[in-house]
């Protein structure tokens, strides 16, 4: 999308600054390069942003969009730039609209069990503040310490507790959204039920900034459960047995808050990173957490795991030990990615197909001679195979691309999806037709055309 040549760049930037009186507008080369953010090599690496704008309020958002409409300029929404699918990378001539400064927690209500936040509030910050009044915010993506609620909502981020509490969509009660034409919509609210009209709130959750700019989010909070949580490690011969055990735990009447799987390669990488020796025990490790249910839930869980071949189970309610176990999961990615180029994938399959999917990932690694570290949120069928290759090899190897294609098609064949929680971005939008079909794709384009007829909001993302 090209800027109208009838206007000079100085004229456009002058209009932008006048339209955003509370924003910080950056146009210098260093700032534009810093926020270009193209880790996956998919964005327009040869072009430069027109401007990087940190908006201060909703009026600034409306100002950016008014300038974008007037001059036909694409707008790339961004908060903390943690996308793994080129969801908010730069495009030549675009305005990058950052809501990082809109970072206020507007309300936390223990009585209503809700919080109202601006999009730049960090996920961990919200949870910490909710804890102070005996509540917690459930969605906990791996990027929780650095990712913002606005980005989480835009991508429908999941996390380790999705198995029990759902993804971000399940915690969003209401939104304020600015459309491309400048209208501000107030959707949903503070009630847990609302039957009037179409459910536009959850249309915008997961829309990746392609339909509107989220300026406020009302989310559900949960009371911190009574009693004491239990965490544990269980070791298995392989990921197949682990997956079968997890599927049975899910059907047993126990409601675990975390069921995380790590294969042998991942455990070995963690051992090297942490100085531990977990790989000596087995070929796969399960991290589990029960936050309610007491001794009976723990007894049932241990029996199911043992019946499905667990070699060793260690559980604890000691706070220090539980923090150490949580740290293992948090350190997984830096342990795996250290010294490598990498791509981390995000398929999800029905629980009954989790074991076949895990088996297939191993087959692909052997068949194509690629190094795959497989982990994931096993409790909800979400599989994260990470493929690594030498740092000095800057181009993505052909066998890595082939491996991704095979795993994507296998996930679809098993009735799953190729994007469980990491969104679509630019990396996966070419797969939209294959997963959703032509008719659904057409309806999505019609929705996009209705809400963003000029196509200025986050182009090339979400839909093909």
Automatic annotation (TrEMBL):
Keyword hit for Oxidoreductase: yes
Family label: Belongs to the FAD-binding oxidoreductase/transferase type 4 family.
Molecular-function annotations in GO: FAD binding; oxidoreductase activity
Name under which the protein is recorded: FAD-binding protein
SUPFAM superfamilies in the cross-refs: FAD-binding/transporter-associated domain-like (SSF56176), FAD-linked oxidases, C-terminal domain (SSF55103)
Cofactor: FAD
Keywords: FAD, Flavoprotein, Oxidoreductase
FAD-binding PCMH-type domain ranges (all copies): 45-224
Lineage: Bacteria, Bacillati, Bacillota, Bacilli, Lactobacillales
Protein source organism: Furfurilactobacillus milii
